[in-house]
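Q: I'm writing up a methods section and want to include an example of the input and output format. Could you take the sequence below and give the corresponding predicted structure tokens, formatted cleanly so I can copy it straight into the document?
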Amino acid sequence: MKSSDISKEIYQFKISLNDVHLPIWRRVLLPSTATFKDLHKVIQVAFGWRNSHMHQFVIGGENTDHMYIVSKETEDHLDIGNSPTELRMAEETTILADVIPKMAKKLAYEYDFGDNWQHTIVLEKTLPYKSEQSYPACIDGENACPPEDCGGAPGYENLCKILGDSKNQEHKEMLKWLGIMKASEFDPHAFDLKKTDMEVKDCLMVRSEYA
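A: Here is the clean output for your methods example:
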């Protein structure tokens, strides 16, 4: 495929947060010539993460070799190197079309190796570039992002249970930790598509680059 053809392709991804008790997902559009660093930024903004922990993209299943797409910061911090069964690529320079869909249409995004937030990224379709559309974009989604550092998926479920029970002995402590006065201020079902889309667009400002 010619580079000019690739530049006119838009990838539609559905990105889902795994193992949580609520369906938390976002549907986003990115040009195929965006980098994995761009995709990382979009995921962070679309979900509402704070980009305060390390992350990596992973391709491969349980019984197959894995390919890791990592930032230089993550690679330097973990002091990781290639093994015969592992391929590592730099997210800053690897474009989506280098990997998707020829290597995979489905991959994982891991964020915060302590809380271990696991996301599944699925390429739903490839669309033609539209001059009237700004990219990147968030076009759909459901439910709020969990608070950072709440203990991963099990911790988030426990947090919601505590907030829903004013008689729980940890209720006031959890309100204080969240910085709110009452439980109703925290809505796990909240998702503002218009606001999220605007923030996703602002995080890269790439419309002219892909025109």
